Amino acid sequence: MRAGATTGRGKMSSRMAATVLCAGLASFSCRRAETPPAGAEGLRVVSLAPNLTEMVFAVGGEAALVGRSSACLYPPDRVRAVPIAGDFGAPSLEALAALRPSAVVYVALENKHLADRIESFGIRCERIECRRLRDIPDALARVGALVNRAEQGEALADEMRRRFRELESAQFAGPRPTVFVEIWSDPVMTAGKHSFVADLVRLAGGDNIGDEVASADYFRVSSEWVLARNPDIILSLSQSHRGEPGSAERLIASRTGWDRLDAVRSGRVHHSARSDVLTLPGASVLEGLEEVRGWIRAWSESGSDAGAAESGKGE
């Protein structure tokens, strides 16, 4: 998923296209009285971020959702009926004019001045911070309030905070496994210390080996880098393996030297069928968190101390 991906729009000149879009939005602005103000029944919302779109559905506010980004794919059985209003963080002004939203919600925009431009046409813009695990409950509450489902949003947020507290106080006894998270397979990328995925691994009971890098949420690594750290568990979240059972495990084991890793030798290479949940700081995060916690629990209960001593980790 790449922010700012664009598609061709024929041979219309950029100046002519801008003229047409501005004319359409100006016309829309003049008709603003026909659209109820934000917060009233009849609210029309466009979401430009996958996690915020998922939250709208989670709180029961889909009736207000009139547009989404091309990256908003969850929940798959319900979101496909919602019109696309552009790409992730990069809306089409033409599409916005056609959808006539009263509010646009986003996590980040490709162009930092775009929010001001959209608001100049009378459309409310709401930036909802949601990069880390701790941001999700507050984001749920804000989305709920925005789509007139404040009670539902607060209830989901409170339940998530409660579960986070339970997990923080119920860590497994004994050593914590080291975990390598493969975000992408070619090139190999992993998660840095301040990423959502690293937060998730820590709360599940593991130590993300990418935590030594704090300057980037996600970064490329070499095979040598992974081999030197010899993780206990490998978690593959690469979207390239979706729908191919066992493909992630086979690919990882086939890399030069990776067959010597403790995670590969002990069969602890895991690819989640719900990798979308594990890479999306959204309403379904607890599902992914419980899955990762189950793999870490299995490692903890398997006699990890003996395995570590045999591989030299206990020295």
Written account of the structure:
The protein folds into two domains: 20-163, Nitrogenase molybdenum iron protein domain (Rossmann fold, 3-Layer(aba) Sandwich); 175-308, Nitrogenase molybdenum iron protein domain (Rossmann fold, 3-Layer(aba) Sandwich), CATH 3.40.50. The protein is elongated, with a radius of gyration of 22 Å. The protein contains 14 helices and 13 strands. The strands form four sheets. Strands 2-1-5-6 form a four-stranded parallel sheet. Helices cover 41% and strands 13% of the residues. A hairpin with a 2-residue loop joins strand 8 (184-185) and strand 9 (188-191). The longest helix has 19 residues, at 150-168. With 315 residues, it is α/β, with parallel strands linked by helices.
Q: What keyword list fits this structure?
A:
alpha/beta, four-stranded parallel beta sheet, about 325 residues, Rossmann fold, 2 domains, elongated, single chain, about 40% helix, 14 helices
Ordered list of secondary-structure elements with their pairings:
Layout: H1 14-30, E1 45-47, H2 50-58, E2 65-68, H3 76-79, E3 86-87, E4 90-91, H4 93-99, E5 103-106, H5 114-119, E6 124-127, H6 135-146, H7 150-168, E7 178-182, E8 184-185, E9 188-191, H8 196-204, E10 207-208, E11 218-220, H9 223-229, E12 233-236, H10 247-254, H11 262-265, E13 269-271, H12 275-278, H13 285-300, H14 304-311
Parallel strand pairs: 1-2, 1-5, 5-6, 7-10, 7-12, 12-13
Antiparallel strand pairs: 3-4, 8-9, 9-11
